[in-house]
Design goal:
It is a single chain. It contains four helices and seven strands; from the N terminus they run αββααβββββα. The protein has a single domain, classed as 2-Layer Sandwich (Beta-Lactamase). 36% of the residues lie in helices and 33% in strands. The protein is of the alpha+beta class. The two termini are 13 Å apart. The longest helix is centred in the last third of the chain and has 17 residues. Keywords: Actin-binding, Cytoplasm, Cytoskeleton. Belongs to the profilin family. Occurs in many kinds of cells as a complex with monomeric actin in a 1:1 ratio. Binds to actin and affects the structure of the cytoskeleton. At high concentrations, profilin prevents the polymerization of actin, whereas it enhances it at low concentrations.
Length: 126
């Protein structure tokens, strides 16, 4: 399956409205759906946030210029929330999944879908 198919499938669930897959270092975009493309500084902040979340804790998480309140950040997952919408970022062995869910979607539903894809990618050494 191509990288693009993974992001398209996330949107196909109806729980995610934007998705992108970046290299683990955050230096290259591998696939994007729903118009999600991050400026270098935003994907850099996310990539760094997996190693040291203090920057995200102090300034928040930014996605396409929108600031999200940091809900969780560890070496695998970063979650952010703004009003009724949110962001889920998950790091695998070789990728960073960056996703956005719209208002009306429960955070837990969106999180389960993205975390399951990450588990699958990890299981096949990605």
């Amino acid at each position: 399956m191509s990288w693009q198919a993974y992001t398209d499938n996330l949107l196909g669930t109806g729980k995610i409205d934007k998705a992108a897959i970046y290299s683990r270092a955050g230096d290259s975009l591998w696939a994007a759906s729903g118009g999600l493309s991050l400026p270098t500084n935003e994907i850099g902040e996310i990539a760094q946030g997996f190693e040291n979340p203090s920057g995200l804790q102090s300034t928040g998480l930014h996605l396409q210029g929108q600031k999200f309140m940091l809900i969780r950040a560890d070496d695998r997952s970063i979650y952010g929330r703004h009003d009724a919408e949110g962001v889920i970022c998950v790091r695998t062995k070789q990728t960073i999944l960056v996703t956005h869910y719209p208002a009306g979607v429960q955070a837990g539903e969106a999180t389960k879908i993205v975390e399951q894809l990450a588990d699958y990618l990890i299981s096949v050494s990605y």
